[in-house]
Amino acid sequence: MRIACVTMQRNEAQCLEPWVRYHGYLFGFENLFILDHGSECLRVKILLQEYSARGAHVTYLGSAADYRQKGLFVSNEIKAAEARGNYDFLFPIDCDELLCVRDSAGEPTVSRTRIHEALVPYLNESCTLQISENFMNQPQFPGFFVPAKYQKVFFARGCCEMLDHGNHTAISKKSQDCKITPFAYMHFHFKKFEITRDGAREKLLPWVNPDDPEAIHAFDGPGVHLKRYFLQSEEQYYSCFTNAPPAFYFKEFVDICHALEIDENFVMMKPAER
Known about the structure:
By secondary structure, the protein is of the alpha/beta class. It folds into two domains: 3-189 and 247-268, Spore Coat Polysaccharide Biosynthesis Protein SpsA, Chain A; 193-231, no CATH class. It has eight helices and 13 strands. It has helices spanning 16-27, 42-53, 70-84, 112-119, 193-204, 213-218, 234-242, 251-259; strands at residues 3-9, 32-36, 57-60, 89-92, 97-102, 108-109, 128-137, 144-156, 160-163, 170-172, 178-180, 183-187, 248-249. Strands 1, 2, 3, 4, 5, 6, 7, 8, 11, 12 and 13 form an eleven-stranded mixed β-sheet that branches. β2 (32-36), α2 and β3 (57-60) form a beta-alpha-beta unit.
């Protein structure tokens, strides 16, 4: 079984290497496809060269590429990946998301064997495949995650026609239906406050000026979930984790991180330290 992962990123100095190492462990570096949207960070440029030499496919879009067309860029890269290899499944995965699955007992696992086994029932599936859960990282509590509802999609062979901007919905070439799967993402969305706000600013700029209080308060477009970082203080940001719903400790994931030389709390590290 061949599985491809596609991500689009810009200056992801914290998340890029963990994303590549982890999914390279699951599926092989040669099955990773990275769209670089004009990264200026030296660390990211070095990582792209390093992992390209190890087999990952890197496409340089350039900074002039319109970020609002992300869904089109990722859809086209999935189709290009299919043209290169006979892939059974193709996952569009954001750079702060790491794939996992719930096993037959309902327990989260990052076992490579169980992830591959869980894909078998969906071989040659014609409809869009849905991920309906993510495990939100708790930046002050390494290895702890809070389950939350989510909606992301992936495809079996030959199905990808078009994705929306955030990989939340899609059009399949073969069916209008959607099927829920047991897969989930460990979502490293929450970083140090200043890094989270800087990243949100970069993603919101194509649509709204994040530094305009009136504009950001009224904004209701793509990336609307990011505007809260401009409407809250640092203290309010961190209090969300102290008061979060019950979290679980994902020991199996922490063990894999150590084996792959990934810091399980990499999102709390300053990019320069890496």
